[in-house]
Structure formats: C-alpha cells, structure tokens
Amino acid sequence: MEDKTLNLMACASGVGGADVHSGDGPLALRHSEYLNKLIDSGVKIKWGDIFQLREQAGLRRDEMIGSVCASLAKAVSKHMTKQQRLCVLGGDHSCAVGTWSGVYDAIHQKGDLGLVWIDAHMDSHTPETSETGHIHGMPLAALLGYGYPALTSVLHYEAKLKPENICLIGIRSFEEGEAELLKKLNVRVYLMEEVNQRGFTSVLKEAIEKVKKHTYAFGISLDIDAIDPEDAPAVDVPEEKGIHLDALQEGWAAVINDKKLVATEIVEFNPLKDKNQRTEKLIVSLLEMLAK
Q: Is 212 inside a domain boundary?
C-alpha cells in the first residue's frame, strides 16, 4: 500500500534573505497550533530533519549557505530514494539550492528534473548582477549553473536544471541583469499580467505540462511573496497585486496529485511580520492539501 504521509523537512536559515527572521518560519510552523491540530486529527504529516545554518569563522556567507544547502541536499536525496512524499520548508529562498540539488542527485541517472518556480521575483541574479548581494535572489541562477561556486557545486558540479525544463509564474518585480540571463537561456516566464489575463490554474497546468515534457520528474517551489500581500503579509519583500489565495488553492488542488510531482517547497515565511497568523494559516492549508 502506498504511504500517503507527507514528510516535512526544513531549512531554518534566513541569512541569505532581506531579514534573517525568515529563518524563524520553519520553527514557527513546527510549533504551529494549527498544524499540530491537523496532525492530532489524523492528517498524515510527519516532521523530519530541520537544518539550521551555523556561523563558521573564516567562511563567506555564500560558503556558509552552500554548506547548509549541502546538508539539506544529502537528506533530500536520501529521502527521495524511499519514494516518500516530501515538502521542504524554508527559510529564505536560498534553500532551494539544497532542495533541488538533492532531488537532482536522487533522480539524475533516470532523467532530467523539471521545476515550476512560483514567485514574485526571478531569483536569477549572479553576484555580478545583484544590487543587494542577497543570496535569496540567486538560487535559480545557481541551479542553472551560474553564480558562486559554493552554490553551483552542491553535491554535483554540473547544473541541476536545464532552461527548457523550468517555468516561472507570478513574476512582477525584477532587475535587468537577471531578466537578461533568463531571456538568453530562453526560460519561460509567466509575468503576473499574463496570470491575471489567463487565470492562475490555466497557467500552472500549462507550465507543468512544459516542465514534464522532457523530464523524469518535477517539483514546485513556492515563494509565498508570489501571493498577494493581503492574503500573505508575512514576507520580507512584499509585492502588490499578486496571486490571490483562492486562485492559488484552486491551482494547487488541480496539480498536487500529479504522479510525476516528487517534491514541493514553501519558503520565505517571516512570522514576525504576520497579521492574525494569516500567513501561517495559509501555509498550513497548503500542507493539508498536500497530505490528502
């Protein structure tokens, strides 16, 4: 009998983001009364490892983040070999380097990895193009093989993703350098304007078909700043006019049982910025949907 349990793994690090308190997000969820009520009611959700970045003398920030991502990646890869359902909770979005490097490690001998990246931002900067230097703006570029060697070489030195196997959804804030990189690589980007015109569910289904076409399996990485700040206020870099909660939940429900979906990731929850635990409840609702 297939094990329907949703296994949670977390990377409680915020040093790559605009506010270190995004690293508190996974810990807040670990102790969430709403999530624990779900678990107590019989919903099959199980907590696994929680990785935290340790300050190490003599290491640059990218090297420290690379180190915690390597630990996360090894655990994700080991988990993937058991063919259990997995959701990784961040932390800032730099943890994606660990999550998807781990999935890549587990499946790359069978085929390529596809990824749907739902975000208000492109997260495709390199150190040369980033205005802030924040590493949470660089993980997708790193997975494509561009940027700090400490991030591009996690578990494997090669790129973990091919441009044709990636789609970005919900983008509405970006800088020239990262946009140029994705354009040069011909990565499919669904700006928020297109999402509004066509509907989130329609766009998400199309994106998934694209990333599945030439791959063995795919994942979904959700930065909650993709969601409208009215519905998800607890993020570090909010952008107005995002995806509405009802649309997100509708799309989520339509795709999460796809047999080629091997992992999900939800990141950038900063509990210090939440209002009436609105964002926390939203994330719990998405985890509940994954677990059913």
A: yes
The single residue of 62, 225, 231, 280 carrying the catalytic annotation is 225
Give 24-74 pLDDT, tens digit per residue: 999 999 999 999 999 999 999 999 999 998 777 788 999 999 999 999 999
- Provide the percentage of residues in the chain whose pLDDT is more than 70: 99
Where in the sequence is the domain holding 126, given as residue range(s)? 6-290
Predicted TM-score (pTM) of the model is 0.97
- Please say if 121 is a catalytic residue: yes
Number of domains in the chain: 1
Assign residue 10 a region: left if phi > 0, alpha if psi is -120 to 50, beta otherwise?
Answer: beta
Query: Is 123 noted as a catalytic residue in this protein?
Result: yes
Q: Which of 116, 130, 154, 182 is nearest to 17 (CA)?
A: 130
Out of 92, 112, 178, 268, pick the active-site residue. Answer: 268
Q: Catalytic: 19? A: no
What whole-number distance in Å separates Cα of residue 190 and Cα of residue 168? 6
Residue 128 lies in a domain: yes
The residue assigned the tokens 């490892």 is 49
119 an active-site residue? yes
- Is residue 1 one of the residues assigned to a domain? no
Identify the active-site residue in 62, 223, 236, 274: 223
| H or E element that contains 114 | strand 113-118
Catalytic residue, from 119, 228, 231, 239: name it. 119
Task: Please confirm, yes or no, whether 268 is among the known catalytic residues.
Answer: yes
DSSP-derived letter for residue 261 is E
CA neighbours closer than 13 Å in the CB half-sphere of residue 183: 7
Query: What's the token pair of residue 50?
Result: 């929680």
Is 201 inside any structural domain? Answer: yes
- Active-site entry in 93, 231, 265, 274: 93
